[in-house]
Amino acid sequence: MNYYSTGNRQLRRSLKDAVLDGLAPDGGLYMPESIPVLPKEQLHSFKTKTFPEISREIALSLFHEDLPEPDIIRITDSAINFDTPLVKVEDGIYTLELFHGPTLAFKDVGARFMARMLEHFTRGLNQKINVLVATSGDTGSAVASGFLNVEGVQVFILYPSGGVSKLQEMQLTTLGGNITALEISGTFDDCQRLVKSAFQDSDLTKNMILTSANSINLARLLPQSFYYFNAWARLSENQEFYVSVPSGNFGNLTAGLIAGKMGLPVKHYIVATNVNDVVPEYLDTGKYRPRPSIATIANAMDVGNPSNFARILDLYGHSHETILDVMSAYSYTDKELKETMGDVYRRTGYLLDPHGAAGYQALKQHAPKEEGISGVFLETAHPGKFSLTVEEVIQSTIEIPEKLKQASSKEKVSIPLTSEFSELKEFLVQTVR
Ligand SMILES: *Cc1c(COP(=O)(O)O)cnc(C)c1O
Question: What CA dihedral angle connects 175, 180, 184 and 190, to 10 degrees?
C-alpha cells in the first residue's frame, strides 16, 4: 500500500519511505491510501483475545501489503509487551490505562513499535538511521526507552536545559548505548527549530539518514489504534461506546479515528483539552487559529498548533459539518482539572493524572447518564509522573512507581550545546558516520 501526503494526494510513498521521511517533502503528513475494514466476526473474536493478540491482528491488517507476515508479528509482539487494562471508575465510566509501559505513558506504544519497524528497515541499508527528536519531556523519555539497544538506529534527543523535570531529565540522560542526550541552552521551541533545520540542511541529509520520532511519523501513529480495540473488547457488552481522548498534538485521537474507520463501533469521539483549546474552538466556529501554547498542569497537552490536525481534516474531506458529527470537544482550566481529580478520588478512590482528568470530565459532560451507553476515557500517564500536582490535590503523599525511581539512581550524561544550528550541525558531522 502507498501512503499519500495530506498536502498533495499525488505525492505517494511506500511505507518504508514514508517512515524514513517522517514528514512528507511538501510539509504534509502521510496517510494510508486505504484503511482496511475488519470483518464483523473478527471484531467479535477480540472479546476473547488479549491485547497483544488483538494488536497482532490489527498490525497484520494494516501492514500485510508492506511487510512479510513473520516480521509484522515479531515487531508487534516485541513492542506490545505490556497490557492496557480497562478499569471501571463508576457506573458506565471506564478508563483505559495506557501507562503500564516502561516510561508510564501511552507514548511507549508508538515509540516501541516505531523503533522495531525502523530496525527492520535498516536491515537492507548499509547505513545507520539517525533519529532526531525534540522533547519537552514525555516524548523524549518514551523514545529513549523504546529505541534503547535497537540495532542500526542512533537516537539524538534535544531537550531544553532546565526546561524538563528532574525525573524526566534522568529518563533521557541515563540510558547510554545508542541514546545521546543533547542539552540545549534554550527553550523547547529552540530544540524544535534545531531539529527542523537539520532535516532541511542538504549537507547533512546528503550524507546521513535523518528521521523524526514525533507523532507525525506513521510508525508511531498507526500502532496507537491497537488499544482502542482493546478498550471495546474488554467491555462486557457488544454495542457502540463513547471514547474520550485527552489531546495535545492529536496523534492519539487520530489513531482512534482510524480505528473507527476500521470498524470499531465508536458512537462518538470526545476530545478533551486544557486551556490550549484551538481544536475545541475550531469545532465551535469552523475557524482554525493556531497560537502560542499556554503552560498548564496537563503539560503534555500544551500545544498551540496540533501537528495532526491536518490528518483529521483529511480524514473527513475538510468538512466542518462531518467533523462535528464525529466528535465534540471540551476544554478545562487547571482549577477545573484539580477539582475533577479531587472529586473523583474522594467519590471513587480512583487517582487520575491531570491529563486523564480532562478525559474523565469531558466524558461526564458529554455522555448523558440515562442513555445506558458505556464510555471509556484514556488515561495517558501514571499519576506518579505528576506527583507534585496530585499530592497537592489529594493532600497526601503517593507511592512513586519503581520504574520511575530506577532512573534517578544512575549517572546523568548529556552533551551541552547552544541553540546555534551550526553547533548542532558540526556535532552531527563529527559524530554520525
Ligand atoms: C503526549 C501526551 C498527550 C497528548 O497526546 P497527543 O497524541 O499529542 O494528543 C496526553 N497525555 C500525555 C500524558 C501525553 O504524554
Answer: -110
Rounded CA-CA distance 277/288 in Å is: 10
Concatenating the DSSP letter of every residue in 282-304 gives HHHHS----------SSGGG--S
Please determine, for residue 356, whether its predicted confidence score (pLDDT) is greater than 90: yes
CB-ligand 1 contact for 390 (6 Å cutoff): no
Q: Which amino acid is at 16?
A: K
Q: Which domains does the chain have, with CATH numbers?
A: 83-105+221-400 (3.40.50.1100)
Q: What distances in angstroms separate CA 358 from CA 137, 364, 381, one per listed residue?
A: 20, 10, 12
Residue 37 grid cell: 475494514
* Cβ pair 362, 272 in contact under 8 A: yes
Which has the closest alpha carbon to 143: 182, 177, 171, 184? 171
Could you tell me the CA-to-CA distances from 339 to 80, 280, 316 in Å, in that order?
34, 21, 35
Indicate if ligand 1 lies below 6 Å from the C-beta of 383.
no
Residue 186 pLDDT exceeds 80 = yes
CB 212 within 8 A of CB 199: yes
Q: How confident is the model at residue 192 (pLDDT cuts 50, 70, 90)?
A: confident
Closest ligand 1 atom to 307 CA: 8
Query: Which residues fall within 8 angstroms of residue 318, CB to CB, at 6 or more apart?
Result: none
Decide: residue 24, CB within 10 A, 0-12 exposed, 13-18 middle, 19+ buried. buried
Does residue 168's CB lie within 6 angstroms of at least one atom of ligand 1? Answer: no
Distance CA 364, CA 360 (A): 6
Which residues on adjacent β-strands are paired with residue 154? 130
Question: Measured between alpha carbons, how far is 7 from 25 in angstroms, rounded to an integer?
Answer: 9
How crowded is residue 433: how many other Cβ atoms within 10 Å of its Cβ? 9
Tell me the H-state helices in 174-277: 188-200, 202-207, 218-221, 226-234, 251-261
- Any bridge partners for residue 123, and if so which? none
C-alpha distances in angstroms, 363 versus 162, 356, 376, 389?
A: 35, 11, 8, 22
Q: List, for residues 318-349, the tens digit of each pLDDT value.
A: 999 999 999 999 999 999 999 999 999 999 99
- Dihedrals phi, psi of 331, to nearest 5 degrees: -125, 150
- Name the least confident of 57-61, 155-159, 207-211: 207-211
Residue 293 in contact with ligand 1 by CB distance below 6 A: no
- Residue whose CA lies nearest to ligand 1 atom number 2: 300
